[in-house]
Structures are given as C-alpha cells and as structure tokens.
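A note from the maintainers: we've had questions about how concatenated examples are separated. There is no special marker in the raw files; a new sequence line simply starts the next protein. For clarity in this README we add a label.
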Amino acid sequence: MNELKVTSDIIRDLIPLVKDGVASTDSVQLVEAGIQLDEQLKAEFEQYDELSFESKELDLPPALDMKIISAMKRSFFMTQMLILIAGTAIGIAVTNSFEMMYNFLLMPFIGALAIFSFKSKWKFIVPIAILAITFVWQLTARIIIEDSAMSAFADAIFFSIVYALLSAIGLIIGLLLKYAFGKEKDHYE
C-alpha cells in the first residue's frame, strides 16, 4: 500500500477536531507529532481557542434578531388563535350530537389557552365571544330545525351560558396555572 504524506495542511484541518475533543486517537497522535515538529503549527494549535471563539460569534445585527423573534412570536400567536377558533367551532358544532359532553373538556381548555395566548385584557373577552358565537350559531340552527322560535331562543340561551361558564372556568384554571408556574420560576431563580 502507498504511504500517505501528512502535510501541515492536514494537521491544520485536524486541529479543530482535536481541540473540540471529537478526533480519533490516531488523529490526536498525528496532531501531537505535527506540532512537535513544526513551531508554526504549535503556535496555531495554542491560538486555536482564541481564534475559534472569535469566529463563533454571530455577527447578526440586533434588528435581524428582533425580526426573527417577532416572526416566531407571530407564528406562535397565529397557531394559538387557530386552535382557539377551531376548538370553539368544533365545540359549538357538536352541541346537537352524542359528542356534546366533550365540551366539558374543550371549553375550559379554550379558556385556559386564552390566558396563555393573549397578553392584554383580551383574554377575558373569550367567554363573552363564546357566548355570542354559541348564541348566534344555536339560534340559527334551532330556527332552521324547529318551528318554534321561542324554544330555539331558550335552547340557544341555555347552551350559550353553559359554554361561556365553562370557558370562564378554564380562564380561572389558566390563571391559577400561570400563577403556579410563575411562583415555581421565581423559586428557582
């Protein structure tokens, strides 16, 4: 087999691996032998930590960092809004079916999610929004199905109040969880 010639460039290529602790034993021995024979390689080996630290620093401008962070926040907020809207629509839509009992889990979840989704006082509007949406949805569906507008109105009011109360319970649960997680975070800091 032909013998390979180990040049100083090969040693330079192996120095980062050796310094990072991921090089094989043979590579470590090769670098050690190379830096013993070449003073310039030895100096580069000793200066590697300083050079690598300087090259690892990101030169991203702060404006770009803020754009990335705001894009991530916007994406996260939009996902939460989609979950809130879809959950509300599903909960209201299954009212007249056998799956109606899932609303005892779904509506409080929507209320709790609102606590973590909204930063301002908008989170407290969620039960009111659910009340209004449920009332309009149920009233429209009941009038189409039933002949009696009075019965449809009573049913729509009943389901609207129940779902609004369930989402308000979820808001309270979310506030308690946020308080508990905040206390836990303060405890460890």
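[label: protein 2]
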Amino acid sequence: MEHILIIEDQQDTFENLERKINNKLTNSLVSVASNCDQGFDYIKQNIITNPITLMVLDLTFNNQAQDISIKSGNQLLKVLKNNNINIPCIVYSSHDEMEFIHPVMNNYHPQGFVIKSSNSSEELIFAIERVFVGENYFSQRVYQQQLQRFKYASNIDEIDEQIISLLPITSTIKEWKKRIEN
C-alpha cells in the first residue's frame, strides 16, 4: 500500500486533495501535516512501521507559530537530505517563478512539480500516478522554466531545441524514427 503524506497549510486545499486522492487511488493511505515540523515528525515516526512512499509538499507556509523550526518546503527538503531520508517528492506550489522552481529542481531533484491552480488537483493525481510507476512529472510551466534556464546556461542550436521540445512526448525508438523521417 502506498503511503502519501501531504504537507500543506491551507486546510481547504489539503482536505480537497485528501478526498480526491482517496477517491482515485483507493489502495493508498493519505496522511496530512499542516506544517513542515509536523511533516518531518510524522516521517520520522513512521519510517519503520509505515514509511511514507510519496510526499506532496508545498513550498511556502503562512501564519506559522513562532516555535516552528522548518519554515518552508525548501528547508524540509534540505533537512531530509541532510538526514539521508529519501522520499519521492512532488512539489505542489502556486509559485511558478524561476527563483522558486530552480533551487528546488537543482538541489533536491523532486520527482514532480505541479503548479497549483483552480483545476490542478487532477494534474497532481496524474503526477502521483506517474511517480508510482517510476516516472517523473512536471507541469508545463515548470518544464518551460527549466528549458529557458537550460537555453541560457548552454549554447544550443535549433536542432537541439527541437529535440528538447520533443522529449516530453517521445518515449520510444519507433516514435523517434517517425519524427526523424518526417
């Protein structure tokens, strides 16, 4: 049984996600933490008996108590990394700016990154399903941000750009051969 931990401070968001995930992924146990300290404690408490197999993590948390030590999703990812706790992660954030996306992608390599919007819970469930079968999933905006950064970081030509643009939709040798022949 898959054990999903949602770490989200907006009650309506995590209740909605919990309900939708339970309805769609009936063989999964869904747990919720409203801040990163609770999430980290829950991960440690369940590491042997009922380990988390996927974490859905927001990046920013508002209206936190003063005694909270892990104040953001980035900080939690760092704490997990420093403690050698490897849990597949999908970042679920409303931030689609490069200054939020790039540090997470570059330093922590999440298996997914979904941008929150009015209908993003369905995309998140799709991402969860992809991660459970060993694939990664990134919202189109995240993919475009990473591509833009890559373009600036390296000098690529038009052929490289075409290949990169086809990567998300071409997964087999037969598909590549068809695209090359056209």
